[in-house]
Amino acid sequence: MKFIRTLSTTRLIILIVTVAAIASGSAALAVAASGGGGPTPPPKPLANAIHDALAGAAPDGITADITFTNSLFPSGALTGAAGSALLSGATGRLWETNDGRGRLELQSNAGDAQIVWNADKVTAYDATSNTVYSFTLPAHAAGTQDTGAPPALSEITTFLTELSKQATVSDAQPDNVGDQPAYTVTVSPKHDGGLLGSAELAFDAARGIPLRIAIYAQGSSSPALALEATHVAYGAVSSSAVDIKPPAGAKVVDLSSAASSADQNGGADQSSQVTGLAAVQAAVDFPIAAPDTLVGLPRQHVGLAGKNAALVVYGQGIGAIVVVEHKADAAKASGMLAGLPTVSLNGVTAHELATQLGTVLEWQAGGRSFVLAGSLPPAAAESAARELK
User: Fold this and answer.
1) Can you tell me the mean pLDDT for 68-97?
2) What does pTM read for this prediction?
């Protein structure tokens, strides 16, 4: 797995803590029991375990069985929207070549899904809706190409020291995952963690390849979000196993096109320079709802989100509340959460997506459209929404 093994120090940071970012919106995965009864590696300090694993011999390729189960969404949270392996859970198979091309194939009673990637693009095909979601990966900036050499032990130690200022990081726990000797490390936020309890990563002790990723909600001993590889085998993988194209008649949704259009039109660069309530209010054609505090959290940022939308942030870290506001579309009575359960906000109907790790609300009022998201329980999110007048 070339992509994972050629991590710079920055990407190593992303690898260990990215599981926390997934909490902002994703399907969930269930983790199989750790400690498979096979051989485990010797105890090591975490920095040494990471360094030695990344310095190990690169495999020619990898194949593995995958367990992918949804426990993130409570019963009823996705009424009418759970007919997909990406949301209702699945089992499947993983293939990846040593040049970074890969495929994850998932099967479930709710439908099948397939994710294919290479150095330039990620494509996800949902068979239930016959839809292809594609995303073009950002190009490397000049001078930032990975060399293939692992980060130095001193770099890893420095990174872990900085990380420990924001989170509690466990020792490297000897484990066996996917029939491979592995180390498991757990990271939990020290403050501003919202509903996030901890994130867990298990990696191959000899090759540095992630074998299990899990996210736990506060107070829960079962993961809300977890992915585990089992029956892992290393060896050459045929190009035919990873170079798979979706059906020709599938609907295509390009998730990177909006960002590309913004860049071409100068929208992203210009909007990022407009900050502060007064400046953003002058730039949009609707009144912004941005009180000084929201459910006790101070307003930290107001900026443009595109050419005619406002982004308001309350609080800091994972526990922050994010509000996006724009002028309501008179021809469109509901937004992206239409079809989800509804709640009343002072007489206004809102659609709500509630998960173990956070809540998203969407509603229209006073000629404006609102989306509020945060790692907080539904009651707190609803209280925050009612304060936006």
Assistant:
1) 70
2) 0.76
